[in-house]
TrEMBL record:
InterPro entries attached to this UniProt entry: Cyt_trans-like (IPR004821), NadD/NMNAT (IPR005248), Rossmann-like_a/b/a_fold (IPR014729)
Protein name: Probable nicotinate-nucleotide adenylyltransferase
Functional summary from the UniProt entry: Catalyzes the reversible adenylation of nicotinate mononucleotide (NaMN) to nicotinic acid adenine dinucleotide (NaAD).
Enzyme type, top EC level: transferase
Catalytic activity: nicotinate beta-D-ribonucleotide + ATP + H(+) = deamido-NAD(+) + diphosphate
Coiled coil: none
Molecular function terms from GO: ATP binding; nicotinate-nucleotide adenylyltransferase activity
Biochemical pathway: Cofactor biosynthesis; NAD(+) biosynthesis; deamido-NAD(+) from nicotinate D-ribonucleotide: step 1/1
Domain of life (superkingdom): Bacteria
NCBIfam families the UniProt entry points to: cyt_tran_rel (TIGR00125), nicotinate (nicotinamide) nucleotide adenylyltransferase (TIGR00482), PRK00071.1-3 (NF000840)
Annotated source species: Bailinhaonella thermotolerans
Amino acid sequence: MRSGASNGIKRLGVMGGTFDPIHHGHLVAASEVAHHFDLDEVVFVPTGRPYQKNDREVSRAEDRYLMTVIATASNPRFSVSRVDVDRPGETYTKDTLRDVRAEYGDDVDIYFITGADALAQILTWQDAEELFELAHFIGCTRPGHHLHDPGLPEGKVSLIEVPALAISSSECRERVAAGEPIWYLVPDGIVQYINKRNLYRDEAMV
Ligand code: ATP
Ligand code: MG
């Protein structure tokens, strides 16, 4: 299975997301994929700040970036990239993949990790043919979203089952706004960062 060790090519996972906030569903998905695909490293890439997502304001890129750093700091195989945060405008997966490759050099095979919901969206809205030249795609199960194969090209997309964690960033934000706990849905440092920066208290931001 493993080719990385013998030919010097690094196997790099790329996990893009809004991460508003990052939660244990994201971390478990990345960890499972890293194990199954024998990845050397997974780089988390918080998106740039879209004008709005699902009719709500997205938190500042810097807060989402810092939460991603805090949540991944203890894992030596996890890292965080600023490529999307630092690029102005909407985030497109092809730009993410090109910039990550520029950052890591040519000796990497890229595995783009997404949940089933995001995979379906990306392949509908962006040029799939172009994306498949830049990375192998890995779609993870996610509670409430079915994995299905919408005529995916052979060898370009793998679908894997990860332990189902019914956690979403939306639910975490709603809980904070309602004064409900988010302990154990997100890493401890994220609970503390959200309190310290007073994130998600305002219903309009949820
Ligand atoms: P929101 O509720 O605001 O949409 P989210 O929880 O979906 O947030 P995103 O930042 O949108 O989080 O997701 C980043 C990536 O992580 C996407 O590919 C998404 O499908 C995946 N993902 C999110 N939550 C889970 C989960 N519980 N299990 C597996 N994958 C997940
Ligand atoms: Mg989402």
